[in-house]
Amino acid sequence: MARIPTAAFLVAVSLCTAAVVTRHARAQETADEPEYTYRRGADNGPERWGLLRVDWAACYWGRQQSPVDVPGGSSAPGPIRYGRLSQHYRPAPATMVNRGHDIMVRFDGDAGGLLIDGLNYRLRQMHWHSPSEHALDGRRYDLELHMLHQTDKPSNKSFAVVAQLFRIGRRGDATLRMLEPYIERIEDRRKGSAEEIDYEVDPRRPVRRSDEYYRYTGSFTTPPCTEGVVWTVATRIGHVSRHQVDLLRDAVHDHARKNARPLQDANGRAVALYYNWPLRGRGNTAATSDLN
Ligand SMILES: [Zn+2]
């Protein structure tokens, strides 16, 4: 067995001690070591999520993963369709939860939902990623809101996510402004820490003004990276203040300050551009065909 040089041994010991001290100081945050992180190149980093657990295999082997780069502008993203984004949201009681890797607003009452291709999706929760996970024409934005919906009956398309991208501007986001005190309260708290919100959260505000949206079939952007998720990405970019982005980054655990999964291969998937027209109609009646 090779003899460890004394100096190297002492350095190793002091590094371990430092690690223990730091760890102790942040015991609250690291009491539950994250199973996966956003640290590129780490053993449990995003490139290796699918190798960490058998039920996360889709993260590595899946062919319909999210997020993706949505080509726009001069290069048409894919088929153009017409169909109103049929939202029927309503304000509902909600709870703010620190999930370690993100900050989530969980709806505890009936917040309404979406009608897509005849399927009714109920709004379950919303959460934020920073920077944005989806890119438009190769460009990532400062923040992305995900509104996660689920059908009452299980199917091969049980989940739908509506995504809203934001860039930093002078005006902040009105929904986040109302949530700021609660985000501050759960900052750096243990995974699963929750704060009940004193008022009903209105899900109609964040994506109300988008006239066009992209639609494609993808996956969850966190393990288990389940596929068959119906994605709707609003083309209109919202505004958020730097303070609001910083607040969300400070509130999550250190490994997730930048909690955007790297872009995934499209693998031939088409992204359809939908015009929110007719504004009054029967929903997606003109856009019922599958994309793939
Ligand atoms: Zn998300």
In words, what does this structure look like?
Pfam families: Carb_anhydrase (PF00194). The structure is a single chain. By secondary structure, the protein is an alpha+beta fold. It has one domain (65-275): Roll (Carbonic Anhydrase II), CATH 3.10.200. Helix content is 18%, strand content 29%. Strands 2, 3, 4, 5, 6, 7, 10, 11, 12, 13, 14, 15 and 16 form a 13-stranded mixed beta sheet that branches. It has a three-stranded mixed beta sheet with strand order 1-8-9, with no helix packed on it. Strand 10 (143-151) and strand 11 form a beta hairpin. Helix 5 packs parallel to helix 6. It starts with 5 loop residues before the first helix and ends in a 17-residue tail after the last strand. Residues 127, 129, 146, 221 line the site of zinc ion.
How many strands appear in the DSSP assignment?
16
Give me the Rg, rounded. 21 Å
Low-confidence sequence ranges: 1-30, 280-292
Per CATH, the class reads Alpha Beta
The fraction of residues assigned to DSSP E strands is: 25-35%
Catalytic activity: hydrogencarbonate + H(+) = CO2 + H2O
Keywords: Lyase, Metal-binding, Signal, Zinc
Function: Reversible hydration of carbon dioxide.
EC number: 4.2.1.1
